[in-house]
Amino acid sequence: MRLINATTLELDFFYGDDIPRYAILSHTWGKEEVTFQDWQSLESAKTKAGFTKIEGACRQAIRDGLEYVWVDTNCIDKSSSSELSEAINSMFAWYRNSQRCYVHLADVTESPLESRWFGRGWTLQELLAPGRCFFYGADWDFLGTKEALAPFISEATSIESKFILGTARIDSASISKRMSWVSKRKTTRTEDIAYCMLGIFNINMPMLYGEGTRAFLRLQEELIKISADQTIFCWEWGSGMPPSWCSILAPSPAEFANCSGFSPKLSSFAGEITPYVLTNVGMTMTAPYTRGQRCRLMVLSDCSPRPNFPRQ
């Protein structure tokens, strides 16, 4: 893990238990961000617009008694696909393990909820993972803590305060609920709408930029391998669906926008969640169903089925 020395601005590398206490920056990318390569010449890096917020984060860290800062723009060598993949798979933990997260809202000076930060995919984990978040405006004026702003953030994001503040475990939320959290968020690259949720679901998988929407399918397939939460199938067929879509899995998180209310239920047979299996020829599962006029409709509901409900 590379960290910026807040005093000298040099990049230092640390491994495992040797990682010191550090602050971490959360922000939205803009024009002229400073890359790892740019940082090799500080004089050159200082000419870019993105240098100012890195410098601001370092100054704030020094005021808070922290020697190091992590920033995603210049602490990752993105020319190395292996390093980028490792960083993306580790990022949730890096934010969670930080002493302080500085949320820099470059597009606001007073009202934090008006910032585009709340609509970006990557910033979801940057909101949920850290224990302590401090929000700052464009000029690094303090706007409030996560604790103070939690009720307003909850209303704006439809994420319950208990998950924002960490009083409830993120993995206690159903898959469909967590999918709904990112359903209206945007990422620059198509694949990132899946990759930005790896930490939210505690999933590790390789990055394959160029795979497009296949990334979200891979994420769901990985979830099926480790979870019996059937709310992964509780998504809504919307007007934006691909015309030829014929999978039981959703094409994107957007289909979960109205599905946060589903939760997995215990099986009336064994007293536990019923497992299911995804194979190369289809899926096997036990679930209640009801008959429609022209077809048999499987029901995955928020309610436990009656004992005599017909089963497939």
Structure description:
Residues 22-109 form the Heterokaryon incompatibility domain. InterPro entries: HET. This is Heterokaryon incompatibility protein-domain-containing protein. The protein has helices spanning 42-45, 51-63, 81-96, 123-128, 146-157, 161-164, 175-182, 192-195, 214-226, and strands at residues 2-5, 11-13, 22-26, 68-70, 100-104, 133-136, 142-145, 277-279, 282-284, 289-291, 296-298. The chain has a seven-stranded mixed β-sheet. With 312 residues, it is α/β, with parallel strands linked by helices.
Features:
11 strands; 26% helix; globular; 312 residues; two-stranded antiparallel ribbon; disordered C terminus; alpha/beta; seven-stranded mixed beta sheet
Helix and strand topology:
Blueprint: E1 2-5, E2 11-13, E3 22-26, H1 42-45, H2 51-63, E4 68-70, H3 81-96, E5 100-104, H4 123-128, E6 133-136, E7 142-145, H5 146-157, H6 161-164, H7 175-182, H8 192-195, H9 214-226, E8 277-279, E9 282-284, E10 289-291, E11 296-298
